[in-house]
Write a structure and sequence with these properties.
Length: 140
Amino acid sequence: MKIINLRDYYPFYTQDTLLEVSDEVAQAMAEAERLERNYISRMYYHKAQYSLDAGDGIEASAVECRNLSPEVVLDLMERHCRLCRALNELPEIQGRRVEAHYLLGQSQKEIAEAEGVAKSSVSESIKKGLAAMRKYLEEN
């Protein structure tokens, strides 16, 4: 049995927290720590920390925003606010389903299973919600 300090492995520990673990666990944690350090070292060596081909697209969107003029950014913010207001005008069930489908990326089948309703009712609700949002945006 070995005693490890959780503060060495987890950055959110602010005080020393000693824990007795088996030799296999201590060895696995040390190996994981070593692999993480090596990965970070290789990433900086190859300058991959600035990669624009990340799967989540965070870096690419950050670069795109730098190229936009203040007027375009303001226009995008206003559109976003209008869409949020239109979504908030929907009845609760329609709004929840539209949000789950378009913002959270859930399929209509997943929404139907989560709510315990038929897929057709979710589909119809989303269709009516989009029509109501379209009408609201045309009026305002």
